[in-house]
Amino acid sequence: MDIVAYGVTVDERPLLEEAFREHHGLRCLDLVLNGDTAVTAAGCQVVCSSVNDVLDEGVLRILAAGGTRLITQRATGYNNIDLEAARDLGLAVSRVSAYSPHSVAEFAWALALAVDRKVPRAVTRTRDFDFRLNGLMGRDFHGRTAGVLGTGRIGTAFARIAAGFGMRLLGYDIAANEECRVLGMEYVDRERLFSESDLLSLHAPLVPETHHIVDARALSLMKDDALLINTSRGGLVDAHALVETLRAGRLEGVGLDVYEEEAGVFFFDKSLDVMTDDTLARLMTFGNVLISSHQAYFTRDAVGQIVATTARNVADYLAGRTGDDTLVPSPTR
Predict the structure, then answer these.
(1) 259-277, pLDDT tens digit by residue?
(2) Name one Pfam family in it (predicted).
């Protein structure tokens, strides 16, 4: 059986090759899967996609025509896949429904601490042998309010760390999480979450109801010295509104590991290219904004679990099994 995996990093490749060592047809590509590259999957029964691949109806038609029967995504999110089109084309689809929540939660805190304590600016200065402290003053998190938008596994892990800092906890979700309540979290409406949080961290999936949940109005409710952290999905934040908020001198700091238009940019070397995304370029100019390239999940523990689950999803497909990771079952099973 031939398998092709897209968007494979150098560090991820040996893990995939080990997991699929019994499948001699595995090919690992660093390409983004889209309308221009879909033909490279011709003859492969299984396509192993990444979060920034484009699997719209057009791409899925090319894959189905080339012999693909299973799309297995190496990610929890799947908003990049047209599930209805996959179902109509007879393509099975699976994902990784869960992996180490600590990887993302801990990275969210890395961003929060870095922007609060001005670590990037400090490192740049000391590399130039400038050891002054001017402009580097941060704040204690202890005693302040952490807002968690989305209190699933990752949000809960984030809240647990916040509790360790001695922070007051506010949460917002469609359903309360008892684990978070035990930590002392108070569930509030969005208006209170935005207006009372000193640190707001986003851990919600991207669905129509959460698209641009942090919009101009939400940003206007936030404290002028609040911190905003997003390690979930770029589409949760209206980036244009965020730029205008920052231009007005509001928000103490922003940490973004995701960006709405990151496909085709994140995971690639663009250092010699002209940046045509004016919004991303503008965000990069703010000294209190720290942007990383969707790496919050990228630990040995989490990637190992993702790869193992992906391999199991392929095995389940071949055995005619479905489970929690199945998004679209095979029409013949």
Answers:
(1) 999 988 898 889 999 999 9
(2) 2-Hacid_dh
Catalytic residue at 262?
yes
Architecture of the domain spanning 101-291? 3-Layer(aba) Sandwich (3.40)
Tell me, yes or no, if 186 is annotated catalytic.
Answer: no
Selecting among 95, 203, 282, 294, the annotated active-site residue is 294
Please write the tens of the pLDDT for every residue from 44-65: 999 999 988 999 999 999 999 9
Active site residue 294: yes
Q: Specify the CATH superfamily of domain 2-95+303-328.
A: NAD(P)-binding Rossmann-like Domain (3.40.50.720)
Q: Which residues contact 281 (CB under 8 A, 6 or more apart)?
A: 275
* Active-site residue, from 144, 153, 233, 282: 233
Buried b (16+ CB within 10 A) or exposed e, 45-59: bbbbbbbbbbbeeeb
> Which residue among the candidates 69, 203, 262, 282 is catalytic per the annotation?
262
Q: Residue 290: beta bridge partners? A: 255
Domain spans in the chain, listed from the N-terminal domain onward: 2-95+303-328, 101-291
